[in-house]
């Protein structure tokens, strides 16, 4: 049986902490509904300490009775806990720095005082009937012995989970594995890993943490979050399915729409190269790749686009070869004569260089029709038989003009 891993989506909390990102209450609710529909089991819905509007938004989410655990992020203070209770959430993440750097700089506390606060606040929250997770902010820079005491104290006081945060994104997969493996081996409660992407390693670190024994992982849609963001839901869920074989319960085919939804609400355009959901990540231009793909899609495709509800696309551009051009032309009922192929490749390359872009299907057909007309008028001996009627090779006006689209049928589309 596949190992179960639980993703805790914090798009609506850490994601919204990205500079300038604001979700309206309606957007929060819509995103929460979409997250639940895609199979996310837990959503960190917000920070009640931010005040009445945030509490109201959280209350509205709670009222939806979604089939997910809604949890609220709280500092480890009575005020934050009371705000969370007012919002109606059944679960809280009570956060306190684990590193000496943050304990001293932010709170002027030492390790002993921190343990006392954890014991007291976790006890209070558990006594109020809440599911309690303890957020170890900056765990990656924490003294390891203190971290062990934090977990032991939290568990004893009634916490059900501990969250190890790589708050400033300084771990790599090796150090993540080492820290999480040690904690998971000793922890009497579940471990969650919360990675940040400052070094572009959040997803890799999250996979390493899961491999090391974390049963829960924080993610955000598109990796939206503080600074360089968090581990991306779509990357972690897809990588888990493909590489690890663990069961996250996420409907991978729902991810592109979910990402588009969050990108619109966050007003953050998605990069074309964003793994899984980016516009170009299943699009191929290079001649050698397309020639290989057309023979066997496994030649240049590690991730089957259908797995995540996407389609493969072939585009024509500076790097196209004759096979790709012939393939695209054939889709509009035109045969690329082998004698014309090299000239066509050169023409396409010139066009792409002039426009610094791909050559659309319509442009390709126009180029081809123009070239065949020219070849015909010049009486080209190897392309048009000398006796041929030039009308036969003029633009085939009834041939379908291919359109670019990323929607619709999963046949190969091109632009
Ligand atoms: C790594 C993370 O993502 S942590 C989560 C970060 N999230 C946020 O900051 C959410 C948005 N924040 C806010 O809206 C505001 O900062 C509020 C409402 C939370 C607090 O606002 P203010 O009362 O004006 O405090 P301010 O933002 O100036 O400073 C933060 C305070 O929290 C305290 N604090 C920080 N972390 C913790 C903690 N884990 N436990 C207890 N107190 C904490 C700081 O020491 C500071 O206290 P001080 O005012 O006594 O110096
Ligand atoms: O303490 C936590 O719950 C984690 C907070 C967080 O977002 C972080 O440390 O990056």
TrEMBL record:
Biased composition (Polar residues): 395-408
InterPro entries the UniProt entry points to: AIPM/Hcit_synth_CS, Aldolase_TIM, LeuA/HCS_post-cat, NifV/FrbC, PYR_CT
GO molecular function, one term: homocitrate synthase activity
EC nos: 2.3.3.14
Reaction(s) this enzyme catalyzes, per UniProt: acetyl-CoA + 2-oxoglutarate + H2O = (2R)-homocitrate + CoA + H(+)
Record bears the keyword Transferase: yes
Keywords of the record: Nitrogen fixation, Transferase
PROSITE patterns per UniProt: AIPM_HOMOCIT_SYNTH_1, AIPM_HOMOCIT_SYNTH_2, PYR_CT
Pfam families in the record: HCS_D2, HMGL-like
Disordered: annotated span: 395-415
Alphabetical GO biological process terms: carboxylic acid metabolic process; nitrogen fixation
Record-annotated Pyruvate carboxyltransferase domain positions: 5-256
Family, per entry: Belongs to the alpha-IPM synthase/homocitrate synthase family.
Role noted for this protein: This protein is a Fe-Mo-cofactor biosynthetic component.
Protein's name in the database: Homocitrate synthase
Species per Swiss-Prot/TrEMBL record: Mesorhizobium temperatum
